[in-house]
Amino acid sequence: MTRQVDAAEVAPLGCWSGRRGAAAPTPASKLLVPKDRLVNPMPWVVDYSQRAVRTIGALEVLGAVGLIAPGLTGICPRSVRR
Questions:
Q1: Domain-located, residue 79
Q2: DSSP letters spanning 24-80
Q3: Which of 15, 17, 21, 67 could potentially form a cystine with 26 if both were Cys, beta carbons 3.0 to 4.6 Å apart?
Q4: Which pTM value belongs to this model?
Q5: Contact 10, 41 (CB under 8 A)
Protein backbone atom coordinates (compact mmCIF):
# COMPACT_ATOMS: atom_id res chain seq x y z
CA MET A 1 0.00 0.00 0.00
CA THR A 2 1.44 3.38 -0.94
CA ARG A 3 0.93 6.52 1.10
CA GLN A 4 -0.30 9.74 -0.50
CA VAL A 5 2.54 12.26 -0.58
CA ASP A 6 1.70 15.47 1.24
CA ALA A 7 2.19 18.56 -0.93
CA ALA A 8 3.96 20.35 1.92
CA GLU A 9 6.70 17.70 1.83
CA VAL A 10 7.67 18.33 -1.77
CA ALA A 11 6.43 21.86 -2.51
CA PRO A 12 9.73 23.54 -1.56
CA LEU A 13 11.50 21.39 -4.14
CA GLY A 14 9.79 23.06 -7.10
CA CYS A 15 9.06 19.71 -8.66
CA TRP A 16 5.40 19.88 -9.64
CA SER A 17 4.21 18.13 -12.73
CA GLY A 18 1.62 19.56 -15.09
CA ARG A 19 -1.30 17.98 -13.24
CA ARG A 20 -2.53 19.78 -10.17
CA GLY A 21 -1.60 18.02 -6.96
CA ALA A 22 0.67 15.42 -8.54
CA ALA A 23 4.26 15.69 -7.37
CA ALA A 24 7.09 14.27 -9.45
CA PRO A 25 10.47 14.28 -7.70
CA THR A 26 13.25 15.60 -9.89
CA PRO A 27 16.91 14.62 -10.10
CA ALA A 28 17.70 17.86 -8.28
CA SER A 29 15.65 16.68 -5.31
CA LYS A 30 17.86 13.60 -5.09
CA LEU A 31 20.86 15.91 -4.86
CA LEU A 32 19.49 18.46 -2.39
CA VAL A 33 17.00 16.71 -0.10
CA PRO A 34 18.03 14.39 2.76
CA LYS A 35 17.36 10.73 2.16
CA ASP A 36 14.78 10.41 4.94
CA ARG A 37 12.53 12.99 3.24
CA LEU A 38 12.75 11.14 -0.09
CA VAL A 39 11.39 7.85 1.27
CA ASN A 40 7.72 8.76 0.75
CA PRO A 41 7.88 9.77 -2.93
CA MET A 42 10.66 7.27 -3.75
CA PRO A 43 10.54 4.16 -1.53
CA TRP A 44 13.57 2.59 -3.23
CA VAL A 45 15.97 5.03 -1.50
CA VAL A 46 15.72 2.93 1.68
CA ASP A 47 17.91 0.30 0.01
CA TYR A 48 20.74 2.75 -0.82
CA SER A 49 23.06 5.10 1.04
CA GLN A 50 22.71 8.89 0.89
CA ARG A 51 25.85 8.99 -1.25
CA ALA A 52 24.39 6.51 -3.76
CA VAL A 53 21.11 8.46 -4.01
CA ARG A 54 23.03 11.70 -4.63
CA THR A 55 25.20 9.96 -7.23
CA ILE A 56 22.08 8.72 -9.04
CA GLY A 57 20.66 12.27 -8.99
CA ALA A 58 23.93 13.71 -10.32
CA LEU A 59 24.04 11.15 -13.14
CA GLU A 60 20.43 11.96 -14.08
CA VAL A 61 21.27 15.68 -14.22
CA LEU A 62 24.35 14.97 -16.36
CA GLY A 63 22.26 12.78 -18.66
CA ALA A 64 19.72 15.56 -19.13
CA VAL A 65 22.48 18.07 -19.86
CA GLY A 66 24.00 15.62 -22.32
CA LEU A 67 20.71 15.41 -24.21
CA ILE A 68 20.07 19.15 -24.33
CA ALA A 69 23.54 20.73 -24.61
CA PRO A 70 24.55 19.51 -28.09
CA GLY A 71 21.56 21.09 -29.77
CA LEU A 72 21.87 24.33 -27.82
CA THR A 73 25.60 24.72 -28.49
CA GLY A 74 25.38 23.84 -32.17
CA ILE A 75 27.59 20.76 -31.89
CA CYS A 76 24.76 18.63 -33.25
CA PRO A 77 22.09 21.02 -34.56
CA ARG A 78 19.68 18.24 -35.57
CA SER A 79 19.21 16.98 -31.99
CA VAL A 80 16.96 19.92 -30.98
CA ARG A 81 14.23 21.29 -33.25
CA ARG A 82 13.73 25.03 -33.30
A1: no
A2: ---HHHHHHS-HHHHTTT-GGGGGS-HHHHHHHHHHHHHHHHHHHHHHHHTSSGGGS
A3: 15
A4: 0.61
A5: yes
Q: Is residue 44 part of a domain?
A: yes
What string of pLDDT tens digits covers the 82 residues of the chain? Answer: 555 555 555 544 444 444 444 456 788 888 888 989 988 888 999 999 999 999 999 999 999 998 888 888 888 766 555 5
User: Which residue range forms the structural domain that includes residue 53?
Assistant: 7-74
Residues 22, 25, 26: CA angle, nearest 5 degrees: 130
Domain tally, the chain: 1
